[in-house]
Amino acid sequence: MSVTTPVSPPPIPDVELLRPVGRGGFGEVWLGVNRATGALRAVKVIPLRGVAADPAGREIVSLAQLESQRGTRHPHLLDIQHVGLTADHLFYLMDPADDVSGAAASTSPDYRPATLARRLEQGPLASDECFRCARQLLSGLAHLHQAGMVHRDIKPANCLFVGRELKLADFGLLTSASTQLSRIGTVKYMPPDGRMDLRADVYAAGLVLYEMLTGMPAEAFPQLGERAREIASNPRLAHLNRVALQAAQRDHHRRYAHASLMLEALERAPAPRATSRLRRATGIAAAIAAVALATTAYVALRDRKTDEDPNPPKTASPPDAVAAPANSQPRVDVNFVTDTFEANIYLDNQLLVDAAGQPLRTPCTALSLSPEPHRVRFQHPERGQFDAGTIDFREVREVSVNW
């Protein structure tokens, strides 16, 4: 959203406001210069009057919550250096974000604050950058959760780069996890159950990790688009995808309970060296358990739960299961999606597994399947069976079902 400069900036003590550089809630963020030191600052300015709600009052409560934790500042939370009031505005001063070019903030008219949202305009993050940013985001969020606070507005636009380090920002909706929380925030990052608690922050963080991993918008979750094959072949990216999937589960209780647990799960990723050795040893198929999705065709199969099969497919042992060995014949990659994750997949009544004999579970991409009609079934430990019928993989590349 573009920001138009008013006739004159609001007067802020000791700071000359140069121009608006962004928005946050009901307030504007300005680039300012300290009149005494010449230091650049980002200044958020919220009007005290003229709006139906009381955003300044809410923001003051949030800042008071944050102020109570100032004895334990965190390197991946944007530091608020001063909070003040004028007759007409609440304002607070922060470090300015880097420029989108990677250079430090400046008074140049071309300066644009570096946010994760702007970085994602260039596409998905490389593996190392993805892990670094994910770790920094979850580290800052875990600090808030450990202090008993909920952010309620986790999204790429609220992740800034300062000194090339990611910092979680915009604490206007911050509140205590112990209070009754209202449904407030950015809609597309809110969980479907509407419970804005610690697990809601986890849900939003899962979507942000998904966006970093795929370069796709949160609304496309959990599809992986053009990066599906790379994720399927890279155990580190596959691990990151599994973390994002669990975090963004629709079921409240299936998510990580708080960001510290999500961070611990992230840290269990294979080391980069181990990743390289594993790739050389097993190739693409060994990482297929990484949940990967891409969209080339979509089959809408809704509300078609079948009667119980008198001879339901057994959990096949690896020798009887279907793998997808690459050969000289044409093969296809097919995506399998269920609205409840972690369902086993059966093709022609045989369990679909990877090259190591491990069952593939939804959502996932199965590589190198035979391009012909197959009977597709799903088996979930809690939801039971779903018979998707016969699907012709010569025409269909994604099977998506809702129980």
Model description:
The chain is α+β, with helices and mostly antiparallel strands and 403 residues long. 23% of the residues lie in helices and 24% in strands. The strands form five sheets. Strands 1-2-3-5-4 form a five-stranded antiparallel beta sheet, covered by helices on one side. Strand 1 (15-24) and strand 2 form a beta hairpin. Helix 3 runs antiparallel to helix 7 and helix 4 packs antiparallel against helix 6. The radius of gyration is 24 Å and the shape is elongated.
| Biggest beta sheet attributes | 5 strands, antiparallel
| Tally of helical segments | 8
Strand order of the largest sheet: 1-2-3-5-4
Helix-and-strand structural type: alpha+beta
- Mean model confidence by pLDDT: 81
Q: Roughly what fraction of the amino acids lie in strands?
A: 15-25%
Sum up the overall morphology in one term. elongated
- Helix-strand pattern: EEEHEEHHEEEEHHHHHEEEEEEEE
Radius of gyration: 24 Å
How helical, in percent, are the residues?
A: 10-25%
Ends distance: 39 Å
Specify the oligomeric state.
single chain
Low-pLDDT stretches are 274-320, 323-328
Total DSSP E strands: 17
